[in-house]
């Protein structure tokens, strides 16, 4: 009896322990179910898509200027590379970079020894030929007298015909020698003139008024003019500068000779220089498959502020209008047939309207017909989508 009673007591204890172990599981399941219901009630709904926000702008009265922009480099309008026409050792270079020189000033000297020797030889040859000419002329005088005497004796039948013919031939030979000597003298004189010119080229003079902007040769350097003319220095007139702007092929039809232009430099962005287009070069420059045309503008540079190879931003003024209706350029739409239109805000909503425009730039466009000041137009194709609200995200699904 005692063992059975203990066995019954042990069995009931096991049942109670199983019931206690299931209780936490039910609590956890109920908690999860409650959390799921709360999450669905708060995050389970799907937000409706927001209506796109419409950006608008009013038609205003203002001023507009249409321009084309380009990057440019500067060079002096007039400059010359001063070289040497003869070979030799460069003895001296008189000016320094930045010096102002006048036309005719002595710039450099080349060793003249070789050319002085040639000139002296030419003069000696010329003197020799002139002496030979004087001798030949004296001989011709004698030969003429002998020929006259022989012809007179033949006429008086006192001399032979052979003697008369020989005397006549001798006179003609003397005349021919004189002609040959005169030709040699002319040839030697030409050689002397050329050598004198080369001797003069050993002194290099300034061909124009200007400023020495660069020196490429050095004193003591041997210059060889037989292959190409060596450059000694460059003189430029810095009083007038030429701005070379590179304009894209899409904008070049808008620019003509005489188009007003203004530019500023990197060092002086607040100062504006003004000029007009002098020339549009017909041959383009291709940079990274982009076709660019050089447009030249001359500007005075009295204070010498502008320098060679400065970078400038050029603005070509295509036209301007003051006190006209303006709308943002983003509001104007152009069809394939060229007609232009805008979307105008009305009480019934945005409505398309055909307009006629005038000047235009990247930000604003002039309206000639179709709009009145104060009306509201839609920018772009109707607006930009509104951003999604930045709220908490839906939690991940359980299970």
UniProtKB/TrEMBL annotation:
Residues 327-378 form the CzcB-like C-terminal circularly permuted SH3-like domain. Residues 126-201 form the Multidrug resistance protein MdtA-like alpha-helical hairpin domain. Residues 380-399 are annotated as: Disordered. Residues 243-316 form the CusB-like beta-barrel domain. The chain crosses the membrane at residues 23-41. InterPro entries: Beta-barrel_RND_2 (IPR058792), CzcB_C (IPR058649), MacA_alpha-hairpin_sf (IPR030190), MdtA-like_BSH (IPR058625), MdtA-like_HH (IPR058624), RND_pump_MFP (IPR006143). Residues 80-233 form the Multidrug resistance protein MdtA-like barrel-sandwich hybrid domain. Keywords: Coiled coil, Membrane, Transmembrane, Transmembrane helix. Residues 119-184 form a coiled coil. It holds the Pfam family BSH_RND. Belongs to the membrane fusion protein (MFP) (TC 8.A.1) family. This is Efflux RND transporter periplasmic adaptor subunit.
